[in-house]
């Protein structure tokens, strides 16, 4: 047997397809041991590998035989298998062997990257093939696997013999478990079935490639017969793994001396109740759940716990039980986690499943038979894997989804179906057997109209349906991947008030479990047969039974077990409990029983008693619990309203009994709780002391506004410090009752507090803030603090430390040191190598090596947000250690407070630590908690990943060496179980940890023997008199004031009380002064008037009131500013109300009343039209677009104008330039061109005229109508007449068809309604405007009447009272005539409203002093100085009238007093005045009455119009109702109509498309016809040219004709003949048939000559021409055949399309008929509607027996206009008929006359044509085309070419002159170069002479050497070498000079090119290559010496 090994050179590794990694996941890593087995089956120690083991390297894939010849860098070698195979397991003990023996049954690929394994001999191996096996490195899963300190777990083959029962007598097979075909496990598969049943999975499933099999079969074929056939091996049923090899162990640093059993797990007090499915029932007495890195088995009988550790230490993902409860599976977390099957109850590892996922398992489930196991992985692969778990094989696998998947289960009735659910999806899987093998097919469930939801609970039904829960609590019934129906309770109430977490189908009943704490049982048959009943998709179902487990219960999962034949359910409560439930729902049903309670969620804090074995914990579940960790039980629990966040046990100096704890809560409250033994209390009546321990709230106070994060007692117990997230630290004096001392503010949220230890002199408090600040303050002295007004302590000495990140600097220094170390090692190695070379006698020339460019050093990085401080502790006074998270994690920082504390702002400080200790493996896993034992010899660290570390300290101090060695153990969950608290017991016997996963663990510290000792926790005894005390008042309100806020409130109330006292005193003084002043005013009124004081005299100093006014104005301004925001807010609110209630109202109801009558008219109350009815009259966008286009056009015109100007300018400039240099030759050329241009223009004009004339003739002929021409207007009129005239079918008739333009749909009907609504609105608006103008008229009438009445009163004042006529009443506006005034208000209205509100509320407010003084001042000031206010407006209006009347009366009195006897003239004047006044009085009264009468008349007229409009509006409303009913009908039938119309439209579009295709095919066929005609014309032309070439009387004509017509390609002729037969009638022509007959005749004749050979005496040129013509004929014939074939195909396709077009037309006709029928049916529905038509009796002309019938349903309603039109139309049609007959007669006569005129004109035209032809024959002798003669001109192209020739000749002559000038210049240069050549030849001669002299001198020196100098000297050797090199140099120079001489001596024109290649460099001429090819061959320029280089060369001594 030979092993083929490939040795690879150092070349890049070939890249592999990215698919290999995914495929490798399905490859089982369970293999064979690397060495033979001992008789017991154990793995023996392998031998050491030989030192000369070769270095073997291989690529990832074995080379296929078909590819091995392509690998040029591979050398092959063959090694004997016997010599190599034993070396492999010895040299590579960490490799495992994977069978690839049967690649034909399954394909596989190698890993994506070859994994290097280290050989014991120092070499590396990647992978190689051997005997069908491949050896690969066993992969380490994670660093924690390395920490376990154990070897990799052995395979089943290693332990099978050891674990088998002796009675069986079976021996382990050393070959182990072989990778077999991917198939479902069967009972007893035969060998034939194993060979034949080859199954594959989908693209996601992995397979093994068959490259190895092909290579083995190709390379090892000769020995294939000797190799035994491999038989699939199975794992024995009795095989078990060794527990010690499976469980993970703590990691201990090597040589650290730390014992492995430093900590031993004692008990688990917590429960991860938030984890999904974390409760399994194995039997009636055992519960199974996950706690961190352990699986806990809880014995319900004795309440003991057993633990199973995870194998990798990475955590546990899920647990699930086997249907038989004989096994349970544990899916782990970590890198490449395992899935372990444990035996129950032995708890031995039974099977280990590998390679199922990348990071973690999420869920798993056994099928009902228990033979298969399905598992789901987490991110990133979400892999669904189906295992044959007993054989540790993967059956199928696929990616389940791209997001989180929660669960997977087998269908209980069909094991080939699975279901997975998760985030926003449900997926249904099926294992389908296809022709390519077994496949796993998944179909996503589609939610459809239902909202997408996360699915947690579901269950598969027997018939394949699935019921799942929704987030909103309803049930979803899935069928066929779709939601069939959504189930809810009556009234559309959800099935559960929250998500449904589990559904169970048990004993024919469906049970649902919800997070609302309810368990409901539903009728399965009703659920299974449920279906939708309406469009909502909901179906209401009521449960049969329900159970409410309890308040504040959130059920997550239930598990069932039978106890004594009765079903019992154990339920997991997400709020921290385990329940025992009875779901029998009978009379004997037991109530729910809560077995255990735990904290819900993460544990926030833990603390231990300083005197006994008690611990206290708190969490956000609002509970505080006390545990006894010696008896492992919970002693007590107390609940509060808020969750706990911090906790500490009071030290012994505070409470010697150890019965006091301080707890901080998330609302900022701190509660002091005392723990006591209730048995120590005196037994009172009605009280029994049964509990173990009780907790009593002793005191509650609230120092903070946010969550309390830290509590710390001072070392002497005098002060309690509390820290919070509100950035404050509060201090309390610790007494019997805690008294507040004060608080300080800190720069950030408080993370931790620590008082200095007793070893420090001063008692200082270390405050750690989250944002990187550390503060140190001394303990405040209560007596020194002033807490009268505030508790804030402002003078407390504070030291600040602001952490500044130095991690990037540390990394930079490490990088620099590493590079320096590498450089030194490199220099050292170089020196050693030089030393070795020198020792070997070799001379080494030191050459400077170019150092490679180093990568740039990393830049310093400071995080923008400071890293959070996690924990810290004192190391010395003023010094402390810190552990940080974020970027700065991975180190412990030793820091100290600086001395310059008062120089900088704390925010601007940048303090750096002075010492740093790196922590191993902590960059992404920082230390969260640090705790020390009482002896401080051990430091306990809680990590972020839930691991527990212990460092052994030396001399109680920290250093880098101290923290180098540690003990580590993964305890809590690695993902979310960061350790939140860690502490040791008072005697260092126990260690307690709590984590974010809700678990609490206790450990024994180095005392496993002491565990068995009788340790008992002592519960503190109660205080005396405790039972008589009243219950302490608790702070339950989370928004209650804290201590500082209470103090500030008390201070504020005190200040306000003092201010109120002062105000009351001032008010009393003001009241006394007011009373005294009023008394003085009364006394002043009692005095006589001449003695009374005027009011102005009371004002002692006006500046006082001015000052008061100014102060009042300032106060008013201040109040306005204060109320500005409120004012603006109210204004905005008012505007919103107006917008909501008034803006939509266009017209309100306004009632205008008549003045004298009771008539009235009201407006229509109208709402504004919606936007869809409003038409935008302005189109700014259109205007903008138009302006933009106009601007663009103007801009374009300007650019065109500019370009034209520029071109004109350039043309003129060119003309000027040309004119300057123009010569006679150029002028001649220009004139010639101008002449040609004129001739061409003249010819073009003539052609244009001819074309124009032809176009006019063509247009005239085209305009000639055809014989069947009809006038379009007449056709349209006839069509309209046929459609509209004489057809008065009723819409109710059966043969009525709705015209196309009358088809009505929803859109048209909506538009009708909209237009009607707009019209109604428009008419109402017009009427409202008229009414509003009438109201305005009334207002103006009232104003005019007021003026007239006022004038009337003034006139009546001059009359006697007896002459007074009654004044007409002044009309007033009614309130409903101006409703808008309701919304107008002023100050008076607001004040009145306020008074009304106050009166209703019966509230009276005392007057302020300022307001009373202001009122008092206004009471006695002058009326002129009073400001007009609201209440004074009405008297002000009445004042002018009163004043006028009083003046008139006074004038009368004066007139009466002073008047004397009037004279006659005066009497006459008075009489005239009286008559005038009487007349004016009468006229004014009449005018007033006329105004009133006219207004009332206007109102009555408008009222009549409005009544008519009301009637029209009623008609319009009736029409609107009818149209709306029609709209409803249209909406009902819209869907059907759209379908029919869409079908018709589709068919019409298809018909149009088909017609276009037909047209295109017709066009193509016409093109083919034209092509065939062209080809036939070509063929005729070919024969014609052949006849012309023959000439006359050619004796070889017959022979050459045969040659021409000889058939060359029979097959093509056959095809042509077939095509001709098919389309002969269409394509055949007379000439073709004649040619064909000629060919047949030629074939029938005897062939005398060979047509392929030219006969004698025959012209060879003619023969060759005939041959060429024959080839052309054959090509034309082929093209013709091809065109005919194409035409035939087009004809066929055209016929097919015609048939399709007919089918489409028939379908279209059918569809149109269906649409017409539907339209008729729709019209019939319209006819069923009632249409209201109001008629008067005189309009009814339908009588029966002279009476109006009672039923008018048979009558028709016509308008009078329509009836009159019909009667008139009869007469019109008769007259039109007579007129048309007369017109027809006239047209016949005119037609006959036109025919006669046409014949005469045709005769005249023929005569003129004959005369023209005769004249042409006389003049030209033949017929001439006059149009061609007129358009004829000179040959313009020829003339232009001649002009160009002249121009070119002129240009070439000029160029020749230039070349002649350049030639003369070059001749001069040649002469100079010749002189230079001569000079250099002379110089060469001198060099030759000098050389000869030097050789002579050298010979003489050699001959004169003495005997003593016979041996060679070093100096001579060097001189000789130098001279030889100089001689060579000189010889080379001579050769170069000769080359240059020969170059210069040439006379041809190449010298310039050669000279141009000479370049100067460093004083020498270099000959450059003339082409890129030369430059490639000559890498350096060839030197050519110049005289200067020769002279500068060194001379020879």
What does this structure look like?
This protein is α+β, with helices and mostly antiparallel strands. Helix content is 40%, strand content 20%. The chain is built from 34 helices and 72 strands. Strand 40 and strand 41 (623-628) form a beta hairpin. The relative contact order is 0.03.
**Uncertain stretches:** 1-155, 157-229, 1176-1191, 1215-1222, 1404-1459, 1610-1616, 1619-1648, 1947-1997
- Helix % is 25-40%
Major beta-sheet overview: 5 strands, antiparallel
Into which percentage range does the β-strand content fall? 15-25%
> First CA to last CA: what distance?
79 Å
Trace the largest sheet across and list its strands.
8-62-61-60-59
Radius of gyration: 59 Å
Report the average pLDDT across residues: 78
- Helix-strand makeup class: alpha+beta
Number of strands: 72
Instruction: Note the total helix count.
Output: 34
Shape designation: extended
